[in-house]
Amino acid sequence: MIYLNGKFMPIEEAYVPVLDRGFIFGDGVYEVIPVYSRKPFRLKEHLARLQHSLNGIRLNNPHTNEQWHTLIGQIIAGNAADDQYLYLHITRGVAKRDHAFPAGVSPTVFMMSNPLLVPPQELLLTGVPAITASDNRWGRCDIKAISLLPNVLLRQLAIDAGAMETILVRDGFLTEGAASNIFIVKNNVLLTPPKSHLMLPGITYDVVLELAQAHAIPHEVREIAEGELRTADEVLLTSSTREVMPIVSLDGKAIGDGKPGAMFKQLNQLYQQYKASTMRAGNSAVLSE
């Protein structure tokens, strides 16, 4: 069961006109929200990021937060899995093909849910490989835009190499993964790049930093040179659907001893505890509140 422009329907019945600007130009934004035990995780933060993306492309939000809450609840109820991931997709709408913004056009609003498959336990025990590549994407990576071709090509490099992720480097500094945020550990300090226009502001990224702050884990948010990435004691990736995962090799070279490290184990345990307590409470409060 999906939602499209005010109507709920089976996905097989959903169609979008070929002149939709999302199809023609990639003119739109999206958001992905994990759902655990039929409760959306950190919904307030996800809706704030959606608003940031809409602001970035100068598109009015078609719904209030209260309306989004209602629609999201209906989508969750209309699908079978207890754990789901919600996909929200908003384009500028249907108009003749012209680069300029069309006037008086209603946005296309699409929402669907799929079963959420978190990383299997064996991957958390063994860790995963990654590769590196030059970050050749556009200069507004903080906007969660539907025009993801650069990310698709970069992620495919990892698939072709038998790796889980492509870690991106721009002008000699770590930015993020093709579909994730990246942390490293050096001398028992957790390090990650600061939010900027060159990376997506990850919700799980925020949770990990809040956990580090709440549990007195030494951490710094600063630029990370490529050399620091390559000589890190641990490397972690975070995302809404993959949560926290250990990367144990980079471009075929082992990271540390080639096994998930102590910092990953601590943060993953804390993340799972926080996720469980948040879902029991039925809210998405941040740890610092």
TrEMBL record:
- What GO terms describe the biological role, i.e. biological process, of this protein? amino acid biosynthetic process; carboxylic acid biosynthetic process
- This protein's species is Nitrosomonas communis
Membership in a protein family: Belongs to the class-IV pyridoxal-phosphate-dependent aminotransferase family.
Q: Which cofactors does this protein require?
A: pyridoxal 5'-phosphate
Among its keywords, does the record have Ribonucleoprotein?
Answer: no
Keywords annotated in UniProt = Pyridoxal phosphate
Which GO terms of the cellular component aspect does the record hold?
cytosol
Q: What is this protein called?
A: Cytochrome C550
SUPFAM superfamilies for the chain: D-aminoacid aminotransferase-like PLP-dependent enzymes
**Is Nucleotide-binding found in the keyword set?**
no
GO terms for molecular function, please?
A: catalytic activity
